[in-house]
Amino acid sequence: MTGQNVRWGILATGGMAATFTADLVDLPDAEVVAVASRSQESAKAFAERFGIPRAYGDWESLARDEDVDVVYVATPHTAHRAAAGLCLEAGRNVLCEKPFTLNVREAAELVGLARENGRFLMEAMWMYCNPMVRRMKALVDDGAIGEVRSVHADFGLAGPFPPSHRLRDPALGGGALLDLGVYPVSFAQLLLGEPSEIVARAVLSEESVDLQTGALLSWESGALASVHCSIVGGTATSASVTGSEGRIDIPYGFFHPDRFVLHRAGRDPEEFGADPADGPRDSLKHEATEVMRALTAGEKESPLVPLDGTLAVMRTLDTIRDRVGVHYPGETR
Questions:
Q1: Distance from CA of residue 208 to its chain's centroid?
Q2: Could you give the angle at the alpha carbon of 293 between the alpha carbons of 287 and 296, nearest 5°?
Q3: Angle at 232 between CA 227 and CA 233, to 5 degrees
Q4: What is the 3-state secondary structure (H, E, C) of the chain?
Q5: Which of 46, 91, 190, 197 could form a disulfide with 218, with the two C-beta atoms 3.0–4.6 Å apart?
Q6: Distance (Å, rounded) from C-alpha 89 to C-alpha 169?
């Protein structure tokens, strides 16, 4: 790091990389110094778009760039293991998009590489860094609704997506669960930890990816969570947390909320709204800020998005896929 600035490299040049970079360049302590793609032309165009000084037509050059403090990996998730692993082995710190990897075996390999090489690693679970989600969790942790009894969360897109779309391509880890279901599962586990039992059902496409999946997660405490995801129906994309003494409702867009409502017996509903200073609800700056805070503090992982929590979510996703019969080409578990 140079002074107080954290120097970023961007690995991939698709829509997600562009969205993240657009937010990153607005942060005063962030400096985007390099971008890499498998295509020199694509990397150059991305660099020109965002004023990035170095553009690489291969991943290895970015991984070896010692002027890069941290690499943001935004490839399709089937390439997360290879891309993030390459960077960690070369000594770079990494922020890797969700779903973290294709399965828990790959996730554990990345965590092992980070710990062996003394590098920072974090899943880009921006929901966990959102100020409103953090405030909601703090209320739950402080006992505002008593003991958590149940959680509900759903995320569905109306589509329809043609068979050629990446969301229906098994070779790209297609299906609703990994792209969308990771949010409801991560939300439930943020509040309750890893479930002890999992029941799941899905509707599969002709390509054998899940078009929609529902799962019931249970904990030894007696708590239950119902989670649902779909690429064939636009759902409410809402969430609720019910406790022994109240309930919190999060309306549309629960994974980046701008408000939520606390209900408690004998009291009027209490609405909590976002601070305008936090910026747009879809901003990715909060996760970037957390990465930079951790790097500046010398931390190897974020307490907001701990690696053990990421591994626990991946175990749940693996189990759900096993229950519904979704397996990807060439995948070893």
A1: 24
A2: 140
A3: 65
A4: CECCEEEEEEECCCHHHHHHHHHHCCCCCEEEEEEECCCHHHHHHHHHHHCCCEEECCHHHHHHCCCCCEEEECCCHHHHHHHHHHHHHCCCEEEECCCCCCCHHHHHHHHHHHHHHCCCEEECCHHHHCHHHHHHHHHHHCCCCCCEEEEEEEEECCCCCCCCCHHHCHHHCCCHHHHHHHHHHHHHHHHHCCCCEEEEEEEECCCCCEEEEEEEEECCCCCEEEEEEECCCCCCCCEEEEECCEEEEECCCCCCCCEEEEEECCCCCEEEECCHHHCCCCCCHHHHHHHHHHHHHCCCCCCCCCHHHHHHHHHHHHHHHHHHCCCCCCCCC
A5: 197
A6: 29
Distance CA 186, CA 149 (A): 17
Judging by DSSP bridges, how do beta strands 70-73 and 148-156 pair with one another? unpaired
Q: What's the pLDDT band for 328 if we cut at 50, 70, 90?
A: very high
Strand-pair partners of 72: 10, 95
Task: Give me the active site residues, please.
Answer: 98
Q: pLDDT-derived band of residue 1, with 50, 70 and 90 as boundaries?
A: low
Distances (CA, A) of 266 to 139, 140, 148, 246, 263: 18, 18, 19, 10, 9
d(CA 55, CA 41): 9
Predicted confidence (pLDDT) per residue in 110-151, tens digit: 999 999 999 999 999 999 999 999 999 999 999 999 999 999
The closest alpha carbon to 123, from 183, 188, 59, belongs to: 183
